Amino acid sequence: MLLLSQSILAATNSRAQESDGWTSLFDGKSLKGWVETGGRYDGDADWSVEDGVIVGRQGPNGQGGLLYTKKPYAEFELELEALISHPFDSGVFVRMAPALKGAQLTLDYRDGGEVGAIYSDGFLAHNEAGKARFKKDEWNQLRLRVTGKDMRIEAWLDGEPLVDYRLPAGTQGYATAGLIGLQVHGDRDDPAGSAARFRKIRIKDLAPTPSEHFSEGKDGLLAITPWGAANGWTSLFDGRSLEGWEEADGVGGFAAKDGVLKLATKGGASHIRTKEDYKDFELQLDFAMARGTNSGVFLRGDRKGGDPAWSGCEVQILDDHNWEEDQKSQLKPWQFTGSLYGSVAPRAKALKPHGEWNRMTIRMQGSRARTILNNSVLWEVDTTEATVPEGQKPFAQRAATGFIGIQRHAPEGLQVDSYMQLRNIFVRRL
Question: Is the pTM value of this prediction over 0.70?
């Protein structure tokens, strides 16, 4: 019963960790999601999975090598447990790309070696004291945080700080994103059976939306910087056409000009949606509204049909300032701008006056979701715990992947040609 209880607890903790943005990189039984080539230091080490652990040994002739994640990462937190034979030389590599430098957190567990130094074609930071803290013949818990265009590497060993190093500003030749690698160092006369072992490997993508991801041009229009592109940002709107989008439930009501997507008061389409589907992503957009605006952003909308607000979900955009007075009605808390429609009310009022641009950032990752408006966090929830109106599906039964859409739902009688404008629409898959 004790073992069963521990297994249940471990599974519960795993789900909790994933709901906080953590993703497992190792399934405990295979090397799925890992490769041995694609970085800067490919080799021919012997990699296997034994008893739920990734094991790295030198190749038949003493060859070393790296085991890489298939996916590149730019800014992230990485956690793992490591058990390194003594003597043996290993390490954790970050931002590995074929033509540029990454860096290594050394796990050189030998006489004269260093644990917790930063190395990249030479030492960037020594750590002669780290080895004494590394437990022999035991599992050691490591956490790394990698951030910044000028790469900063922070590491902790068993919960205590191990190293904090940042490249000098403007240093050239280093990748801004790349693969994560586990290392076996070759050409060592190590005892037979020596190995580096790794388990409980998980990652949290940290890439935020700082100004360095975008550069601002005329009229407030943004462009993705190389650093933003390295973090996965792409544009959803070219500023002059509806390419990549399609109108739904009718025709007309949307127009693109001079970097702005306009929602017209006249037209037949109820919403416009991306031609591609998205599962886990971060979305950033700017919007400005006229009096009487009623719109929203659809997320994971189901192409099979149904109201996207309920087949996926919707973040509301509404004229909070005048709606109740003009419509002679009282809004529910989950109807104000930025709410998760039908479920979660914003905890702050951040909507700017009519005609001013608002910036909204929405993050969807697994069952967790978050909305930020004008730098105010409106809400962050696990949607499986969110209530829904009677008769609507709980979030766990809604589409797990789908389109991103812009709702066109203006009331009649507006005395303007265009009641809402959008610009700077960017997305980043997670």
Answer: no
